[in-house]
Amino acid sequence: MKIGFGHHDAVGPAQLPDTAFLDDWAARLRQAADRPVVGIMLRGSHARRAATEHSDVDVDVLVVADDGRTAGPGIRPATSRRGTPYAARRAYLTEYGGRLVHVSVAARDVRSWVRRLGQPADWAFGLPVTAPARLLWAVPEWRRRIDLPVLCQPADEPRLEELVATLGKVAAARVADDPVGVRLAAADLARLCPSVLRPANPSVRVVSRRAALTAALDLPVAPPGYRHDMLLCLGLRAGDPAAVGAAAGRLVTGILPLIRPYADEIAATHGADLAEALVDGRVDRYLGELGRVLRTVPPASRDTSAVPGPRAGEWSTVPAPDAPLTGAPAPGPARPSRLDPAIAAKLRRTPDGLVAAVVRAHDSGEVLMVAWMDDEALHRTLTTGRATYWSRSRGEYWVKGATSGNHQYVRSVALDCDGDALLVGVEQVGAACHTGQRTCFFTDLPVSSPEVTP
């Protein structure tokens, strides 16, 4: 049912109908049903107390199972055809408070309805659901089982195989010059991404489709450009088919290194072959073939963070107030900065206004990586304790670990004698290199020198 009526402020949530209204509708729906009713449940925005005056009143009418089993004494067997799921929907427009209200009704087999609670919600981007509900009426035999103040549904499994297959559909549509096919397949692909990324991310539960979209876009462990590419693939940001196809390719290729440490979970749901292909590089090679079709440009950021942060509940990303992941993307060396003028006067910058930052482990002295800072990035690093850099490829600031969980907590910063390089001592959480290695300097080169004769 939809319940947005009564006197209320225009900007506030609509008030739920009074008990008499709900009781009246519960009685009416029981009489109108063509199968025995065992319960009536209020769902949606009104059950969440988030409705507006235009929100539907969503009601589930739970009826006896289609196999003829009854809910209890006095309930006659169902007469509909065996084995056929029962999900008849009725729409009602009713007067309330001087205006029309839409009451949306779905009649559901009660046993199937209960079983459905053990399955992922198809609208939730693979995330677990905790949605408030309100029981309006039930027969005694079923009340204990369906009187649930919150309807919980589990997260979906990481559907990696389907994700890769769907990228193949995007590529096939590009080859066939089918722009509509590209957009449809890319939208399906984007809806799968959060379920595949879920093992690497902290747990989050959602209450509505809108909340699910927000959570799906805000996953802390995600590829560079993830939010932009998701919006593009979902059709929520403008882009031509070529751009949509490239975004789909970036999403999948960026997700692979993030989920590789969770190959065991992939094996449990999809079998050992796919998990082995994820680890030994076969999936990467296959995506490389598709990437040639999609003209995928791999992200150039050094912070692709191949190894995700700790699992759910073990960490959370809390950016410092003046150190957002992105900001002040103005071109050239004259980006505004709050850096202490006395420090700024000592810097010798490149023509792009940058200074090289050599990052090492504070405790061991091990060199971890090299990045770039401008004046503002240095200011944020010095004042927030979080290593912040300037991305030359993306033209924006990035906080190490904000998307990966591989944080760098700054313990010291030193300027070299010429003022053109910084030495940053950090406490490194996880891997510093986007390949998943502890340090970016893991490839030894052969060194030879002429023998020295006395």
TrEMBL record:
InterPro entries, alphabetized: Ant(4')-IIb_substrate-bd (IPR040517), NT_sf (IPR043519), PRA-CH (IPR026660), PRib_AMP_CycHydrolase_dom (IPR002496), PRib_AMP_CycHydrolase_sf (IPR038019)
A GO biological-process term: L-histidine biosynthetic process
Catalytic activity: 1-(5-phospho-beta-D-ribosyl)-5'-AMP + H2O = 1-(5-phospho-beta-D-ribosyl)-5-[(5-phospho-beta-D-ribosylamino)methylideneamino]imidazole-4-carboxamide; 1-(5-phospho-beta-D-ribosyl)-ATP + H2O = 1-(5-phospho-beta-D-ribosyl)-5'-AMP + diphosphate + H(+)
CC per GO annotation: cytoplasm
EC number: 3.5.4.19
Residue ranges occupied by any Phosphoribosyl-AMP cyclohydrolase domain in the UniProt entry: 369-442
Cofactor annotation: Zn(2+); Mg(2+)
Domain Nucleotidyltransferase substrate binding: start-end pairs: 161-256
Record text on cofactor binding: Binds 1 zinc ion per subunit. Binds 1 Mg(2+) ion per subunit.
Family to which this protein belongs: In the N-terminal section; belongs to the PRA-CH family.
HAMAP family, A to Z: HisI
Physiological role: Catalyzes the hydrolysis of the adenine ring of phosphoribosyl-AMP.
Protein name: Phosphoribosyl-AMP cyclohydrolase
Originating species: Micromonospora marina
